[in-house]
Design a protein that fits this description.
The complex is a heterodimer. Chain A is mainly alpha-helical. Chain A has two domains: 72 residues, no CATH class; 210 residues, MetI-like fold (Orthogonal Bundle). Helices cover 76% and strands 0% of the residues of chain A. Chain B is built from 14 helices and 21 strands. In chain B, strands 1, 8, 9, 10, 11, 12, 13, 14, 15, 16 and 17 form an eleven-stranded mixed sheet that branches. A four-stranded antiparallel sheet of chain B has the order 4-5-7-6, covered by helices on one side. In chain B, strand 14, helix 10 and strand 15 form a beta-alpha-beta unit. In chain B, helix 12 packs antiparallel against helix 13. The longest helix of chain B is centred in the N-terminal third of the chain and has 35 residues. Classes of the chains: A mainly alpha, B alpha+beta.
Chain lengths: 311, 526
């Protein structure tokens, strides 16, 4: 197992390298001169030239890429061209906020989604099943910003019981995390339901029931554990998406996390921050996937990883 | 089996209850908290975060808005454009206009306790123009050759040649004076965001991406602000910013979308504030390429567009039809327009220019940069179609747009482009020279349409060095008449700004320079 983890971690190096090449080239493919974006519409050409030199944007692309890789190897991400502060500091300030939001959203999504999925599966075609699957469909399909605005309107503007924007207290966390969590909850409810239905049809469940086991025991001990594998996969992917893709939620609730930093930085042509943020997201995604794969082994004893005894 | 189902039902109910408890507790905690809060803080929500609070690294209006609460400059520009003493108490120029002497205000100290004196001002200005430091707005002091601290409270600027707009340039928000101790140890490439100025508020905390918190400067040299705490929040999303105002999370907001203004105004707890800005919106013509090298065509376009309709119907009255290339508040402005809406005249002019059947052209415009820019471009397209012109619209993201319209004359691929220009020094030199002088053609300056008129060039050059204000006014009047008649632009409108504040807030200054200032603000008790 440890060997497997070590090898997987080693494999992240080429992945990250690939991401580095991609993000470096893609942001440079976007039309628009970063020096001009920094200097502003009223700047003189001399100043724009100065800016270019300061951020070494006047070097040939391969040289710029070399500088970027060299910095990366030393664990340096460079400086923001917008604020002139180290990229690591910029990201370091915002990442915990996004992590908190994504984590809370995931907890909400899991509690609501998995429990709705289990109940729907065990009471298939019941009123509860139909209603909760309808809600799941709405949760997945409703645009995030619409959901966000509706929640703001109801709880912040009309009822005045929750803050609509900003950070600071845990009350600020409520609306954005519910908004973010609802879409994932819908997806998880549907996955849990279909996975449970699949497992409940299998022979070992019939056997368990035939043995006269308590239905609760059958469902939670036998069925659920086996049904969780696709759910865990989706959870992992969702967490990755929540970490990187909370842009809309962060924007509507003025939640200053990493998603908004990325969008702002793209608009400002702040190459170093865009590069740093995307690299971090790619790295996290790789790690989350690894964690998901390892979790399988705990959920299903039949799954082993190479190098482990009993393969 | 029934028991089990019951149990599942309970599980789902439990999950739902948990969520509601979460919301409910938050609500309860909120109610309790709000009741306990005293109103000792004024919160202003703005649409963007300052890039820096170090004068040498400031480039945006948000930086100016936030910065001027902590950092002050020698001269302050009032809402009417007049210049009043700030850190300089009086000033005079030598007879030939090449030496300006300033008396620095005595008994002022920076937030770190260091004294303000001529040396401190000199250190700041030296840093501001240092090419190694590379301040974006160093060109404001481009005419200054030497900065001299004559005595403890006397500062003298030596200019290479007379430069009439120097005082308004010195009033620019970015030429702020901060404690020399705060940058003494910095390399030329380093910056400080400590904002150790002399202003009525001191910086407490900058929570990146979220807010800047300030506290009243108890040792302030002028009248102390009434409200002890000041918070600027950055909420880029328009609807979220408006929600923050409606819920009272913000006491004032900048940049209200015009379509929201009426709705907010109907709320008795909210006042909408309309103010002029210094920004002129225009559509530039590429005067060096067909068909716009012909002034008749350019004039025809001006007659074909109904500016009143744009201002009334699209901008909801929140703008003023341009009557000159600069806004009326600018020194040197003279009213020469507008071109009255006259489609028949437009058709005649087009026929006279050799286009009786109209012509085709592409209008480039930004989206989301200026108030309703793309909607206005569409309206212009529609009006031009009325007189037989075939106009294609093309938009680009802002960075790409600036690049595209910044090409030198032999590479410029554009015919018409919509842009805005803020004459932030409120002096015609800033509004006309960089945009319309032949030496300012791309890429040297911002004359993106390659307009060229020798007489205009000559007048603008003379007005720069003339020290007699009344002579300057006459010169600019003459230049503006020539420019208006040449029609290098399709003159559109001067943007207004719409801000809003809670009805119980008084004393906020909504400045034409697109700042909101809180040092005279107070809460109105019911």
């Amino acid at each position: 197992m440890y060997q497997y983890i070590a090898r997987r971690l080693l494999l992240t190096v080429p992945v990250i390298f690939g991401v580095a090449i991609l993000v470096f080239s893609i942001i440079r493919l976007i039309p628009g001169d970063p020096a001009r974006a920094i200097a502003g519409v009223q700047a003189s050409p001399e100043f724009i030239q100065q800016v270019r030199a300061r951020y070494r944007l006047d070097e040939p692309l391969p040289v710029q890429f070399g500088i970027f890789l060299g910095d990366l190897a030393r664990g340096e991400l460079g400086r923001s061209t917008f604020s002139r502060r180290p990229v690591a500091t910029e990201i370091g300030e915002r990442f915990p906020r996004t992590f908190l939001l994504a984590m809370t959203a995931l907890v909400i999504a899991t509690i609501v989604g998995v429990s709705a999925g289990i109940v729907s599966a065990t009471r298939r075609n019941s009123m509860f099943d139909n209603v909760s699957m309808l809600f799941a469909l709405v949760g997945v399909a409703a645009p995030v910003f619409w959901m966000a605005l509706m929640l703001q309107l109801l709880f912040a503007v009309n009822m005045r019981i929750l803050p609509a924007t900003g950070i600071g207290t845990w009350r600020h966390l409520v609306l954005p995390s519910i908004t973010l969590g609802m879409a994932s909850a819908g997806l998880m409810a549907r996955i849990t339901r279909s996975s449970m239905l699949e497992v409940l049809r299998q022979d070992f469940i019939t056997t368990a029931r035939a043995k006269g086991l308590n239905e609760r025991f059958v469902i939670y001990k036998h069925a659920l554990k086996n049904a969780l594998i696709p759910v865990v996969t989706v959870m992992g992917l969702q967490f990755g998406i929540l970490l990187g893709g909370a842009v809309l939620t962060e924007t509507v609730f003025a939640w200053p996390g990493i998603g908004r930093l990325l969008v702002d930085s793209i608009l400002r042509r702040d190459y170093p921050v865009v590069q740093g943020t995307v690299m971090l997201m790619a790295f996290l995604f790789v790690i989350i996937n690894l964690v998901v794969d390892i979790t399988y082994a705990f959920l299903d004893p039949r799954i082993h990883y190479q190098g482990e005894a009993g393969e | 089996m029934r028991t089990t189902m019951h149990m599942h039902g309970r599980l789902a109910t439990l999950a739902l209850v948990l969520v509601f408890v979460f919301v409910g507790m938050a609500a309860f905690a909120g109610g309790a908290q709000e009741a306990a809060v005293e109103r000792d803080t004024i919160t202003i929500a703005i649409g963007a975060e300052p890039e820096a609070l170090d004068p040498v690294n400031m480039t945006s209006a948000p930086a100016a808005t936030v910065g001027e609460h902590a950092i002050q400059r020698l001269i302050y520009m009032e809402e009417d454009g007049s210049l009043t003493p700030m850190l300089a108490t009086e000033w005079e120029s030598s007879a030939d206009g090449t030496e300006w002497t300033f008396q620095i205000r005595q008994g002022v100290q920076f937030h770190d306790g260091e004294p303000l004196n001529a040396e401190a001002v000199k250190a700041n200005l030296d840093r501001f123009v240092d090419p190694e430091v590379g301040a974006a707005y160093a060109f404001l002091l481009g005419s200054v050759e030497e900065i001299e601290a004559v005595s403890e409270y006397e500062l003298r600027l030596h200019l290479a040649e007379p430069f009439a707009p120097i005082l308004s340039h010195l009033s620019h928000s970015f030429i702020g004076i901060i404690s020399p101790a705060s940058f003494a140890d910095l390399g030329p490439d380093d910056t400080t965001d400590a904002a150790v100025g002399t202003g009525p508020y001191e910086l407490v905390e900058w929570s990146r991406g979220d807010s800047i918190t300030m506290v009243r400067n108890e040792d302030y040299w002028g009248p102390a602000p009434e409200i002890p705490h000041l918070v600027f929040r950055f909420i880029p999303e328009d609807s979220a910013r408006m929600v923050a105002l409606e819920t009272g999370e913000a006491d004032a907001v900048m940049r209200v979308p015009p379509q929201d203004a009426d709705r907010l105004d109907a709320d008795p707890e909210i006042d909408v504030v309309y103010q002029t800005s210094v920004r002129t919106i225009y559509i530039g013509f590429n005067s060096q390429s067909e068909p716009f090298d012909d002034p008749l065509v350019r004039k025809a376009f001006n007659y074909a567009v109904d500016k009143d309709a744009i201002v009334d119907a699209i901008l909801d009255g929140n703008a003023f039809v341009a009557d000159a290339p600069v806004v009326p508040a600018v020194f040197g402005h003279t009213s020469v327009g507008p071109y009255e809406y006259d489609p028949d005249r437009a058709r005649e002019l087009l026929a006279e220019a050799g286009y009786p059947d109209g012509l085709s052209a592409t209008l480039h415009h930004p989206t989301g940069r200026y108030l309703l820019d793309s909607t206005i471009a569409e309206a212009v397209q529609g009006m031009l179609t009325e007189v037989g012109l075939d106009i294609t619209l093309e938009t680009r993201e802002w960075g790409a747009y600036l690049d595209f319209t910044g090409q030198p004359v032999d590479q410029a691929e554009y015919q018409m482009f919509m842009l805005g220009w803020g004459t932030v020094t409120l002096d015609s030199d800033y509004g006309l020279y960089a945009l319309l002088h032949t030496r300012q053609w791309n890429p040297a300056g911002n004359n993106r349409g390659f307009y060229s008129n020798e007489r205009v060039d000559d007048i603008l050059d003379r007005a720069r060095v003339e020290t007699d204000p009344s002579v300057r006014e006459e010169l600019y009047a003459e230049a503006i008449e020539l420019i208006w008649d040449d029609a290098p632009w399709l003159y559109l409108h001067n943007e207004g700004q719409i801000n809003a504040q809670r009805a119980d807030v008084g004393g906020l200054i909504h400045h034409p320079l697109e700042n909101v200032s809180a040092w005279e603000a107070f809460f109105i008790d019911d």
